[in-house]
Every structure is written in C-alpha cells, then in structure tokens.
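Worked example

This section walks through a single chain of length 152. The input is the sequence exactly as stored; nothing has been trimmed or padded.
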Amino acid sequence: MERKNLKRRLVLRGISLAENIPDKRNLKIVLNKALGILRINGLYGFFIWLGERGSEGKEEKKIARAICQECFNLLFIDELSFFKNKVNNLSLKTCNDDIEKIENWIRLSDSINNILIKENLFTIDELFFLGQLYEQMLTYALYSAKANDLQG
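Given that input, the structure is written out below as tokens.
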C-alpha cells in the first residue's frame, strides 16, 4: 500500500510542477535537460546544474526554483519518513530560507547537496533511491507539460 501511495504522490507532484509553470516550451526543455543530468551525473551534478540554471533568464530561474523546491519538499512526505527523520536532525532553517527567497542559486544547490551528500546522512542505496524518485517525478512533470501543450 505504501508503495502505491508513493507513486501517486510522485505523479501528483509532477503534475503540480508542470501546471504551475505557464511557459510549457521552456519547461519541457529544462525538464529534458534536468532528467539527462540526473541520469548521467547523479544527484550532486543535478543540483549543481539546477544552481547554474538559476543564473540564466527569468523563466529558467523560475523553473529551476520550482524543481528545487519540489525535490526538497519530497524529502518530507510521510511515505519517506526515513528521509524526513534524517533531514529533520539537521538545522534546516537556512535551507528553507534559501528556498523561500531563492536569490543565490549556487548557495541553494550547495545547501541541498550538503543535506543529501556531504553530511553523509544517507547510504548510497538511499541516494540512488532518491535519485530514482526525482527522476520519476520529473518524468511525470514532463509528460504533464507535453499533454497540456497538446491540449492548449
């Protein structure tokens, strides 16, 4: 039952991500690139790349912010309580502030990378699992963006 709920959450978060970005053309481009980076370079490269996207144009920055925020929020869903418990042990005030303000993209991606990788909170298996979850969520967001683009 828990796995079914997790899959449903990923679908809903992906759809929500796609619906909240009006520029579907740029969204599809960024999501395709993000998925490729995540698959080839893993979580660390993915968040560094998202940080660099934030220095691009206004729309790219908005899309990168939305992706980072969804990835960060995914750590706190009930079905992933083992992630939530580990992350809650850290002082997340600065990371939450970064997500709200999102002016310094490099600092945000560094904050997320510190939580996921540099703090050694997670085993390699947990990191690979989290990468797979992010990949599924972004894939659903891409499908949703393509479907909305065909309808609209």
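What to look for: Residues 24-53 form the longest helix (30 residues).
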